[in-house]
Design brief:
Pfam family, one: SBP_bac_1
Radius of gyration: 23 Å
Order of helices and strands: HEHEHEHHHEHHHEEHHEHEEEEHHEHHHH
CATH class of the largest domain: Alpha Beta
Keywords: Signal
Structural class: alpha+beta
Organism: Microbacterium salsuginis
Protein name: Extracellular solute-binding protein
CATH superfamily of the largest domain: Periplasmic binding protein-like II
Helix content: 40-55%
Number of domains: 2
Oligomer: single chain
InterPro entries: Bact_solute-bd_prot1, SBP
CATH topology of the largest domain: D-Maltodextrin-Binding Protein, domain 2
CATH architecture of the largest domain: 3-Layer(aba) Sandwich
Length: about 425
């Protein structure tokens, strides 16, 4: 559809929606889809480094070219500083009209009323989400069930494997649907054959704990509270501690030394361990690093292990929200619709912040000759998981303090023998209950 015709259609749908709701006594306030014409200026804020900034600016240029009369003022910073600044802005009621969000941290903004529910904008047609898988879209909902974020990029945990090294050992690569027991036996066999460590530390990674819980009929959150018991966590840490005690994973000392290092400096990327739990979007970085350090090794990414409840994968989604205080909602919604659905924009952005969640655009990136083999492997793995219908990942408040920090802290104490698994699991669960409840 021609761009100007599409804008006119959205405006007409918004106006019709307003009239219909008014006639039915739908409330005193117009729905956000009716707030003004698509024109004027909006602010868009995101996180990222120089490469992502260049791609984002290119998308903005495409949007402004396609939408005469609209200006998008962009601001950016690195991830940590972005959310520190966003917290201050949310408290002061001056978030940018379109703030980039992540579903794991979104509750800290949605729960305080800083973000606008987007359901009316979707229902009116102002934002088209028809090509986003339902479970992925639902991961942009808050604990109240309302949609606060339109996901555009999906990251997810994976098992990175140096396929060249594993095949040289005469061992198989992880089969479809492999489970936690198979993984432990396989890692142990790798360690026995090499006489070294088979993987990085396991118990201190929040994404691996999340996968364990989800594959064992539990979850981080359940209706705004915690969705697990202390025994669930203890079972996982018993599993991880047994691997560490057997010398299958790196030592507690080595884990402490390498904590916080970028992937390029990780033992896996340097070729000293053949497997690693890491978000799949790190595959390209790891491959590029080992190509320099020890050429001739092919790295691959596999889904996280399955358990009694199936695969434990969760999507960590980056997306676009609208601030509750935004005074140009129609234009903000149109920009989000363009960012998510325009194929030229998708190809320019090239899944820089996770796999493209729009099905048609994902395929276009996969088909593009400009997409690297490592990126295609990441996107194909996402495509497989999305087709399987991974359950929505709905997070409540306290994610950063509880799961990004406390998981590492408690398992580190376990690793150094300062506390038992049972004590750590009880204390961690109590801390999570207090922070979230």
């Amino acid at each position: 559809m021609h761009r100007n015709i599409r804008i006119a259609a959205i405006t007409a749908v918004a106006l019709a929606s307003t009239l219909a709701l008014s006639a039915c006594g739908g409330g005193n306030e117009a729905p956000p889809s009716a707030e003004g014409e698509i024109a004027g200026e909006i602010q868009y804020a995101w996180w990222g480094g120089p490469a992502r900034n260049d791609k984002t600016e290119a998308v903005i240029d495409l949007y402004e070219e396609a939408t005469p009369g609209v200006t998008v003022k962009g601001t950016t910073s690195e991830f940590g500083a972005y959310f520190e600044n966003a917290s201050v802005q949310a408290a002061g009621g001056n978030l940018p009209c379109v703030p980039q969000m992540q579903n794991r941290l979104m509750a800290d903004y949605a729960d305080r009323g800083a973000l606008l529910p987007l359901d009316d904008l979707v229902e009116s047609g102002a934002i088209d989400v028809s090509a986003i898988p339902e479970s992925v879209l639902d991961s942009g909902r808050g604990s109240d069930g309302k949609l606060y974020m339109i996901p555009y990029g999906a990251a997810f945990g994976s098992l990175l494997v140096n396929a060249t090294d594993i095949e040289a050992l005469g061992l198989p690569l992880p089969p479809e649907g492999y489970d936690w027991e198979w993984l432990a036996d396989w890692l142990t066999e790798i360690s026995e054959k090499t006489g070294g460590r088979a993987t990085g530390i396991v118990g201190n990674q929040q994404d691996v704990l999340e996968a364990w819980l989800r594959s064992h009929d539990a979850d981080y959150y359940d209706e705004g509270s915690i969705g697990f018991e202390a025994q669930d966590v203890a079972d996982f840490w018993d599993y991880a501690a047994a691997l560490q005690d057997a010398g299958v994973t790196i030592s507690a000392e080595r884990a402490s030394e390498t904590q916080g290092l970028p992937l390029e400096q990780n033992d896996f990327s340097q070729g000293t361990v053949p497997t690693l739990f890491w978000p799949a979007n790190g595959l390209g970085t790891a491959q590029a690093t080992i190509d320099q350090v020890d050429p001739g090794h092919e790295l691959q990414a596999f889904p996280l292990p399955s358990g009694p409840s199936g695969n434990g994968s969760a999507f960590w989604l980056s997306g676009l929200s609208i601030a509750e205080t935004c005074e140009n909602v129609a234009t903000a919604a149109d920009f989000i619709d363009f960012f998510v659905n325009d194929q030229d924009a998708a190809l320019v952005y090239a899944s820089d912040n996770g796999a493209n969640t729009q099905t048609d655009n994902l395929q276009a990136i996969l088909d593009s000759p400009d997409t690297t083999a490592a990126k295609k492997a990441e996107l194909s793995l996402y495509q497989t998981l999305a087709d399987e219908g991974v359950a929505p990942s709905v997070y409540s408040k306290g994610y950063a303090s509880v799961f990004q920090q406390a998981v590492t802290r408690y398992f580190q104490q376990v690793s150094f023998g300062e506390i038992t698994v049972e004590e750590a699991a009880e204390q961690f669960t109590d801390e999570a209950e207090s922070a979230i409840g």
